[in-house]
Amino acid sequence: MTKVFVDTDVCIDLLSGRMPFNSSAEELFSMADLGKIKIYVSALSFANIDCVIRSQYSGSNSRKIIAQFKTLVNVLAVDGKTIDLAIASNFSDFEDAIQYSCAIENNLKILITRNIKDYKKASISILTPESFIKQKQ
Question: Which end of the chain has the least Cβ crowding within 10 Å, N or C?
Answer without folding.
Answer: C
